[in-house]
């Protein structure tokens, strides 16, 4: 058997292979490639357009992202959208949130240093309700642009809306006060009980001894703030009781709850020039203090009381003849080694200018006599004439005391040193202490009254009086009753006798008529004797007879005698 094996062919001869023909064709683009090319161009143009129209990217930090939503929450200025929140994230220390905002191209001016941002939410306060529209549309970020042109892309957002926007008509002023009281940012500012502004901000003074408040008064009412204007804290209710009754004053209900500031020009001549921007004023505690004349330079005085001054506290008034001229600034105990007692040393500040024209006259008189018009010398003359300090009761219900500087008659002379520092005013016992001494004297006198013997004598007297009353009831009263019955019978008889139809009354009437006729006859007789006094000697002459009447001739009777012609 034989195996059939295929015969392997050898490599072909190059001469036998055909030569390839290479043809160079021109590139012919198909129309199908035009569509993606146009799409790429459109996309590129959109990218370039968005890049050219895109505004700045800014970052705002807030305490919380409540109400904010990335991609939805807008940024508005005067209710016009100028940007949108595109990202919200926590800060690295997790103390606040960072909100990335993409502003529009037209809002490039909002990426400046003095621009302010805050979240607008529904807020209910004493000043009213704000942000009601956000209940339906949601919260948004409000913006307020300033005057700066310096670029800034990082901002710290406000937790509350700013009380005053940039560019608002009006002026700002500065008020200085000892404390803030119930005032806060946004507290109203009133002029004649009309709100004309608000408190914009406040801060502690650098020395820490007071507070500076910045207020903003809206135009055109800012023209009413003059160089002479007085500002006072209008918070709460001012209650006063005077000769005209009870008075209750308040600016509005909002000031009672949240506080407020009021201002007005003082009465009388004053500088009515409008105040410049950021002019400084003093914020007084109430309207009465604000409208009072200037106090002038204060003077410190000291008083030494030998009796208790319970009820006298710091800020208690110091009065001169009923006029408030200062206040108490300190009350402390001292020790007198010689008398072994603890006197009370009271320090006070007085304002001589509050005396007004009286103080000016005292200074003029001192200068006219060639004397030093200093307060120490003037007080020395007043002390010589009986001026003393006295702690008096200001309120019987609370027991509060005040210091009264008054002239005490017949007071003993005391040594006074006008050069002493501080000036020491002599004192006398207070009126209430005198009343207590008088009451104690009365009690001592009452203790000396022999009430025991008086009581025994009174008991004996009452026993005798009781016996007398029994005797009166047993004997005197029955006899008195019989006497009264007799008097009643007598009165009945008298009534019958004096009745109108009784014989006595009729006889009395006839007698009175006869007396009347007799009186008329006497009157006629006296009249006749007055005209004929000789009748007392000769008697009354007979009355002359009346003359006979003459016949009266009438024209009819005379006509026959005269005759007539036929």
From TrEMBL:
Residue ranges of the TM segments: 31-52
Domain Mce/MlaD: 55-141, 170-230, 299-406
Record's keyword annotation contains Transmembrane helix: yes
Keyword Ribonucleoprotein: no
Taxonomic superkingdom: Bacteria
Record GO cellular component, one term: plasma membrane
Biased composition (Basic and acidic residues): 536-546
Entry-linked InterPro entries: Mce/MlaD, PqiA-PqiB_transport
UniProt cross-references to PANTHER family, sorted A to Z: INTERMEMBRANE TRANSPORT PROTEIN PQIB-RELATED, INTERMEMBRANE TRANSPORT PROTEIN YEBT
The protein's name: Mammalian cell entry protein
Lineage start: Bacteria, Pseudomonadati, Pseudomonadota, Gammaproteobacteria, Lysobacterales
